[in-house]
Each structure stands twice: as structure tokens, then as C-alpha cells.
Automatic annotation (TrEMBL):
Gene3D superfamilies reported in the protein's UniProt record: P-loop containing nucleotide triphosphate hydrolases
The name this protein goes by in its record: DNA polymerase III subunit delta
Taxonomic superkingdom: Bacteria
PANTHER family: DNA POLYMERASE III SUBUNIT DELTA, REPLICATION FACTOR C / DNA POLYMERASE III GAMMA-TAU SUBUNIT
One biological process term in Gene Ontology: DNA-templated DNA replication
Classification via InterPro entries: DNA_Rep/Repair_Clamp_Loader, P-loop_NTPase
Pfam family, one: DNA_pol3_delta2
Organism: Leuconostoc pseudomesenteroides
Length: 300
């Protein structure tokens, strides 16, 4: 079973979770990121999730990261709400910054609320950022980019963590509708992933008449994102961690026909729907565009 921080990260930031997993698998992860997110709990969850992927996504590592006991993962935050991140807290990390890992490919440092960091604390941190002792990943977290010192901003890759989905209460949706709609979704997903022209007509002839309320639409899109996630991560996680494990045979078939890069890009085309939803484009237009973008991604 996935740890809570991993579930939160994958549900709240599915696109970023997929993107960073791809960077990690391709050896393209930078050593310094500045994560900007309004929710402290979800940005911490995402950072722990990334740290878990770096040091090894095992149950034992998840437990140690969750309890701040992993020897290669270090989390620092203000000691109480409204307090600042002090220079002494950064200097306390000196032995960890200047030594190599104990059991992992990289050391991971997570510093929350860096917008509260004093100039002296920032200067201490910059010394370690500019001269890392070994393989390191430094994750700086903030809820307000404008308050982060320019010397920090200029050295980090800035990533805005914007929640991509809202959790939906399935108790408010009829069970028979859920079962029927999932079957229709699976069929449409199969048509898309096979790059069949029928995927476009299926939107108008079948899906639109089935999805008639905002709540149903949210549920449908949530399932679709979970399908895309399963398709990308199924080989790297246990079956019980998948949302739709009954489709693992289909995921394996896709893996034989496409490169992982193509599947990741197809998943990103699905996750990109959230931007279209925010500018008030109809569901039919969004799904048809998605089918086109997935077809293009799989043909690259």
C-alpha cells in the first residue's frame, strides 16, 4: 500500500509526479528546486514523495521518511507557526551537507518556508548549494515566491505546485452509473491508446450523454488521470497500489508497443486537461482535443 504522502502527491500533482519520475529515471534531475505551493501539507507530501523515489521506494524507507528518521533525507522547517527559518537550523545541517550518503544514491534536503529565511541563513545555505560534497537533491519550499530572497531564486529551478484535481465523494454518485461509466471509459481509453479514429466519434456518440453533471464530470476525469498514472507506473509498483489493477494486461501490451517516453507524453496530454477546464471549454471539445494530443504523443 502506498504511504500517505505518496497518495497525496500522486492525487494532487499527478503531472508533476509523472514528470519528476521521468527526470529521475533518465538521470536528468537537477540538484536544486524551489517548490511554490499554497498548501504546506501537500508541498511537503510531494517533497517526501520525491525523496522516497530518490532513496528507494520501499516500505521501510517510506516509514523512515515519514518519521524523519532516514539517514539520507533531512527536513528542516520553522520550529513553530509564524517563526523564521533560522541560521542555526541551516548550520546544524553542515555535517550532512559536507559528507556523502550512507545508503542512497543521493542525499535529499527539504527546507520548508524558505520565504522566512534570514539573509544570514540564506548565505549559509548558498555555500552548500554552490559546492555540494556529493550527489545531493535540495528541495526548497515556499508559499510565496515574491518573499524568497533573489539570491535563492536565481540559483534554483522554480516549480509551481498547482493542485490538478479535486477529491470527489463517490458516495454522492450512483453505483450503477459508476460501473457503467468506468466500462465506457476503459473502452475509450483503449481506442485512444490504439490511436484509432473511432476515439473521436466515441466522445460524441457515447461519453457526452453519459456524463451530465459536474460531479460526474469530476469523477470521470479523476478516473482518467488514475488510468494514465497506472499506465506509466504499473511496472514500478505493486498491483495493490494501482487504481485499476484489472487492466495490468493492457498496460503490459502498451509497454510492448510504445517507448516509456511516448506513454509519459500521452499521460501528460491527459493531465493537461485541467488548464482547458479552467478556461471554460466544453467537455466534448476537451475530450476530443485530448484524443488528438494522445494520438500525436504516441506517434512521436
Amino acid at each position: 500500500m502506498l504511504p500517505d504522502f505518496a497518495t497525496t502527491a500522486q492525487q494532487t500533482y499527478p503531472t508533476q509526479a509523472t514528470h519528476f519520475n521521468e527526470l529521475l529515471s533518465n538521470g536528468q534531475l537537477s540538484h536544486l528546486y524551489l517548490f511554490v505551493g499554497s498548501s504546506q501539507s501537500t508541498r511537503l507530501a510531494f517533497s517526501r514523495y520525491l525523496a522516497w523515489q530518490v532513496v528507494g521506494a520501499t516500505d521501510r524507507n517510506a516509514l523512515r521518511i515519514n518519521e524523519n528518521e532516514h539517514p539520507d533525507v533531512h527536513l528542516v522547517a520553522p520550529k513553530e507557526e509564524g517563526a523564521t527559518l533560522k541560521v542555526a537550523q541551516v548550520r546544524d545541517l553542515t555535517p550532512e551537507f559536507v559528507t556523502t550518503t550512507l545508503e542512497s544514491p543521493k542525499k535529499v534536503f527539504i527546507l520548508d518556508a524558505v520565504e522566512t529565511m534570514t539573509a544570514s541563513a540564506a548565505n549559509s545555505l548558498l555555500k552548500f548549494i554552490e559546492e555540494p560534497a556529493g550527489p545531493q537533491l535540495i528541495l526548497l519550499l515556499t508559499n510565496n515566491l515574491q518573499d524568497v530572497l533573489p539570491t535563492i531564486q536565481s540559483r534554483a529551478q522554480i516549480v509551481h505546485l498547482n493542485p490538478e484535481i479535486s477529491l470527489v465523494d463517490t458516495n454522492d454518485i450512483d453505483d450503477s452509473w459508476q460501473k457503467n461509466t468506468q466500462m465506457l471509459l476503459f473502452k475509450w481509453f483503449e481506442l485512444m491508446m490504439q490511436r484509432k479514429i473511432e476515439a473521436f466519434a466515441y466522445v460524441q456518440t457515447t461519453l457526452i450523454s453519459q456524463i451530465t453533471t459536474d460531479l460526474q464530470q469530476k469523477m470521470f476525469m479523476k478516473w482518467l488521470r488514475e488510468l494514465a498514472r497506472d499506465m506509466v507506473v504499473y511496472s514500478a509498483t505493486a498491483d495493490e497500489n494501482l487504481r485499476f489493477p484489472s487492466l495490468i494486461g493492457f498496460y503490459k501490451t502498451l509497454a510492448k508497443h510504445y517507448h516509456v517516453r511516448q506513454l509519459v507524453h500521452a499521460a501528460e496530454a491527459i493531465f493537461a486537461d485541467d488548464k482547458l477546464r479552467k478556461i471554460n471549454i466544453s467537455l466534448q471539445a476537451r475530450l476530443e482535443k485530448m484524443a488528438l494530443e494522445v494520438t500525436i504523443a504516441l506517434g512521436e
